[in-house]
Structure to design on (661 residues):
């Protein structure tokens, strides 16, 4: 079954791009294709300058591990590991020894410096999501993909998380986020509105109201 | 309606129930050994008949205790893994009592379907095993077992499996649906009434076992002279006492010895260590493995020390140990394997997270391998501690009254049973390998 059609997008370093659209419009599928988690049946995906269609599965996994960070709605933290160990894990799996100071700095940047030894189950949803962001940052990704990062959070925690994602955008790093929240999308540089597997509309720095209307129109 | 729900659910969650079915199959398989002894004893009219019945009684006692312990543990782990489903049922209108009934019925069905193939295998194995272990001591006899033995074994195992699952079925009925609605994973938080009740029971059993051990040791010198059974029971009672605290204590032992491995040495080892020592069910396989290893080595040591004290040297107690403890050892080892299987089914989500972080197939496969190694090595360590404690205690007590007493420490049985547990653990880990490879290829 074909889910995405005629989609052509480019995300530059230093950009914070959001993808919005009604349920079933293909937002998450687009994100997974861009991240190399889902293979494309036709067309091409270039990730950090590498055409992933030319790579083997293990090469894609390695590219993902070394260059890509993920933040999911369900946090995806390992429950047995402490916050500090979770933050360290992706970099460690990539074969990089992370100095303790770097982990501390990363925890401090997300406001969790006093929770390093806590286990995920003892944290609130917002704190768990901030841990996931710290983990993604320590892995030093060139692209950070976020799938509904505020979907399970209340308004205050959600605003904090979007603020943190905004801060992670640097001259060498881009963030691509799927969201259903117009307020969150309005805080990004560019908004792609999906409809029936196509990019229905593209907006630059729109207001939350504009995003809401565009999604409503796409539904 | 409830029956349909039970059967439909059983079909959907058969992977989780497979562990319980394996234990039931192993239970019926080993139950055919005493069934063979009993059936073989009836046509005989001399003292051999009494000997066979006496041995059968001892084998049954050890087998029943180990089956109830292992099945109780596996049922509890299975029910814990399924609590979110039970919460959903209750939200959908199924009464708490009905949840308990459904779970109990499922355990009985799984028990029957597991026991039948196990008993059919035992139909061949029972007579072969009885002849191999008893012909030298009792002379040639017609070892046989028929449909009566098979039916009795299936019936007894089903009954025991059902009885062992009653506490687990009650726990299932206790799942508060509000926990599920509020997003709290019930499996992460044990319910407080169950915990306090279990603590009281464990404390009472621990005191009873300690008193029994004291009594057995105190009467050991006179028992050696009169040929009593104290030397046989000291080791198993000590193993039971050491394993009583359960997975939390085993996790602490694993945490202690694995701390000698530097954290930076291997990511897969670190992940395995964390899983065994910190996750709720990570250390669950250690207890049955420790029973499997500790029982025969302490039993052999106790028997040998008592033999040396009484001057009855030259008797090899290995065959007698094999006959009496084959069933409990196999059951416990399979119980450990079943706990590993349950654990691997429960943590599919964690495997997905590791995959998304770029762990790769080798890291995830190595993690499973290290988990088995850590679990079995910890169980072996507990077995060694029990062995040393048994030898020291018995030697210390007997050396005063029986100067000819010799300390007995035989490493080969320890290595053999540890090897059996490792093989079962690795087989379970290998059974999960295709799933990990498939996932990473997606």
């Amino acid at each position: 079954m074909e889910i995405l059609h005629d989609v052509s997008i480019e995300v530059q370093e230093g950009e914070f791009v959001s993808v919005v659209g009604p349920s079933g419009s293909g937002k998450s599928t687009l994100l997974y294709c861009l991240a190399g988690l889902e293979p494309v049946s036709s067309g091409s995906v270039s990730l950090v300058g590498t055409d992933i269609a030319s790579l083997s599965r293990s090469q894609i996994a390695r590219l993902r591990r070394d260059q890509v960070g993920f933040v999911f709605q369900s946090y995806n933290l390992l429950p047995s590991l402490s916050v500090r160990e979770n933050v360290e894990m992706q970099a460690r799996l990539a074969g990089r020894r992370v100095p303790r100071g770097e982990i501390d700095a990363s925890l401090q940047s997300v406001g969790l410096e006093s929770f390093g030894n806590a286990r995920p189950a003892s944290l609130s949803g917002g704190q768990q999501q901030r841990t996931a962001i710290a983990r993604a940052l320590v892995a030093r990704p060139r692209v950070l993909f976020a799938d509904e990062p505020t979907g399970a959070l209340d308004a205050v925690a959600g605003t904090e998380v979007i603020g943190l994602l905004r801060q992670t955008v640097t001259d060498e790093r881009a963030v691509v986020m799927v969201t259903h929240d117009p307020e969150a999308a309005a805080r990004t540089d560019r908004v792609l509105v999906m409809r029936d597997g196509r990019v229905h509309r593209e907006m630059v720095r729109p207001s939350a109201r504009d995003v809401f209307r565009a999604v409503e129109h796409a539904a | 309606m409830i029956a349909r729900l039970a059967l439909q659910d059983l079909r959907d969650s058969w992977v989780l129930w497979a562990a319980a079915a394996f234990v039931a199959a192993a239970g019926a398989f080993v139950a055919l050994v005493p069934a063979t002894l009993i059936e073989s004893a009836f046509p005989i009219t001399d003292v051999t008949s009494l000997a066979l019945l006496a041995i059968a009684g001892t084998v049954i006692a050890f087998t029943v205790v180990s089956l109830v312990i292992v099945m109780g543990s596996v049922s509890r782990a299975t029910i814990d893994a399924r609590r979110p489903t039970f919460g959903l049922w209750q939200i959908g209108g199924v009464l708490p009592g009905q949840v308990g009934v459904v779970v109990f019925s499922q355990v009985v069905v799984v028990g029957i379907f597991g026991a039948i193939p196990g008993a059919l295998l035992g139909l061949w194995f029972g007579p072969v095993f009885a002849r191999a272990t008893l012909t030298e001591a009792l002379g040639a006899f017609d070892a046989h077992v028929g449909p009566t033995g098979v039916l009795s074994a299936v019936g007894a195992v089903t009954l025991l499996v059902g009885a062992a699952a009653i506490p687990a079925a009650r726990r299932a009925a206790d799942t508060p649906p509000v926990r599920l609605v509020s997003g709290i994973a019930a499996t992460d938080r044990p319910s407080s009434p169950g915990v306090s009740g279990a603590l009281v029971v464990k404390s009472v059993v621990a005191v009873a076992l300690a008193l029994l051990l004291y009594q057995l040791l105190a009467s050991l010198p006179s028992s050696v002279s009169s040929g009593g059974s104290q030397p046989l029971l000291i080791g198993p009672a000590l193993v039971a006492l050491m394993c009583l605290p359960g997975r939390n204590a085993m996790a602490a032992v694993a945490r202690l010895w694995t701390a000698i491995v530097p954290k930076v040495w291997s990511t897969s080892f670190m992940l395995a260590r964390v899983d065994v020592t910190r996750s709720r069910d990570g250390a669950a396989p250690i207890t049955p493995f420790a029973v499997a290893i500790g029982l025969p080595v302490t039993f052999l040591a106790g028997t040998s020390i008592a033999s040396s004290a009484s001057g009855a040297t030259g008797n090899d107690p290995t065959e007698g140990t094999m006959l009496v403890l084959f069933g409990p050892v196999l059951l416990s080892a399979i119980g450990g394997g079943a706990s590993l299987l349950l654990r691997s089914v429960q943590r599919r989500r964690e495997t997905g997270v590791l995959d998304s972080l770029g762990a790769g197939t080798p890291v995830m496969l190595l993690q499973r391998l290290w988990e088995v190694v850590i679990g079995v090595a910890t169980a072996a360590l507990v077995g060694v501690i029990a062995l040393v404690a048994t030898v020291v205690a018995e030697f210390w007590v007997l050396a005063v009254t029986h100067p000819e007493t010799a300390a007995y420490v035989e490493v080969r049985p320890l290595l053999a049973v540890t090897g059996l547990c490792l093989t079962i653990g690795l087989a379970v880990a290998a059974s999960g390998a295709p799933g990990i490879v498939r996932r990473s290829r997606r």
Summary: The interface with chain A takes residues 185, 188, 264, 267, 274-275, 278-279, 282, 350, 352-354, 356-360, 363, 440-441 of chain B (CB under 8 Å). The mean pLDDT of chain B is 83. Residues 190-442 of chain B form one domain. Chain B has 17 helices and no strands.
